[in-house]
Amino acid sequence: MDKNYLTEPERKIEIVDSADVIVSGGGPAGVAAAISAAREGVSVILLERYGYLGGLATGGLVILIPHLSDGSQQLQIRGFCEEVIKKLDEVDGALHPNWDEIGSDDPNLIQKWLPYFSVVVEGKIRMSVYVDPEKLKCILSKLIADAGVKLYLHSLVCGVVTKDNKIEGLIFESKEGRKGITGKVIIDTTGDGDILASAGEDYVTFDPYDQTVRSSTVALVFRLGNVNTEKFIEFVQSNRDIYTSLMQELEKNIGFRALPMLSWREDVVWVNNWLLGINPLVVRDLTKAELLLRDSMLKILDFLKKKLPGFQKAYVIDSASQLGIRGSRRLIGKYVFSKEDVFSGGKHPDTIAVFPSITHNTSKEHPLVYLPLRCLLPKRIENLIVAGRCFSSDKFANDLFNLIPHCIAMGQAAGVTAAIAVKEGVNVQNVDHSKVKERLKFQGVFLGE
């Protein structure tokens, strides 16, 4: 035996299930893809490695769904994303401006929402939503069940079988061992692009030391309870320079940036953080990040209790059950969405989503952004679609549009495209984009037309 290798004996993998569409990854993009495909009348299986749905929006404790609107009274990101928010509203699971307040410049509203990150942009109210991650898990599970999607939790896809430029099946690991599953169209919503990489598609990755984009960093979010947020807000608004200095002091003490942010509850904050130098595709780096960030958690709590009003009785409620990976693999697909696309305002015949700028309200200098279907389509594999942060893009465009609502929008488009490909018996690259747009609009998606 070669001392550097183990030889795995050849074995047959039992195929335990099959469906028209297989979605790998049950985060925001994957849930949207699975439900949207199922609603188009095809059979769907969703595979998720954890024991819950929602990905970073739930287990990652990234509890902000921002920038659904552009400062006007128009909601740009609609469809499934809007549906989820309204479902959360029904169970008191979200905090956001009233729907009729979108686009307002009322001074009282601005004052109310200014402490909440992403709600006030250039003096206008945006629809940005703070969510209860546990209620969101429940909502997504019910929506998946109601759509008739067959769900496999605790199932990690670990390989693909390809033949003649098509994926014949996926191999996944669970407590039952290694099993196989087959489908006509595969959707990669793993975030890291695990399926596209295993299938041999070309991709690029973020440089984990690149300080020009936030997607080069990772996070381990945690929540603090029993915070007097009224005192916290009052201190920050009255002592902006002192607060900035304190956050710089905290960064110097722990070695990376961390910020306490308001949540959907007035007694809870979540602490976001940005750690450079971690390659999310290397297990030793992932381990290093988990240990370093958890070691820093109590240090951050101690600092906040000593230095910031409102935190004196705070305690750690929980920490994320999964690392917040902001960027890793990006497909090199049929079209690479770029910085030039972001600022040009150019429309595409195959537009499948419209996004507002995340830093400016819509204007000639900062137009709405139109995302083409080709960003989700690989060059070679004929039955694979990607959605979420692994979409085909340069680092700048990806960094702006890999947030939760963008991933949901891409997932919805991927699901609709997959369903049409199945029903018409064509490769995903040959799906009529006008039919995709028609069905997306039927599902409530805004396409700027």
TrEMBL record:
The keyword Signal does not apply. Signal peptide: none annotated. The keyword Ion transport does not apply. InterPro entries: FAD/NAD-bd_sf, HdrA-like. GO terms for molecular function: 4 iron, 4 sulfur cluster binding; metal ion binding; oxidoreductase activity. This is FAD-dependent oxidoreductase. Keywords: 4Fe-4S, Iron, Iron-sulfur, Metal-binding, Oxidoreductase. SUPFAM superfamilies: FAD/NAD(P)-binding domain (SSF51905). It comes from candidate division WOR-3 bacterium. Pfam families: FAD_oxidored.
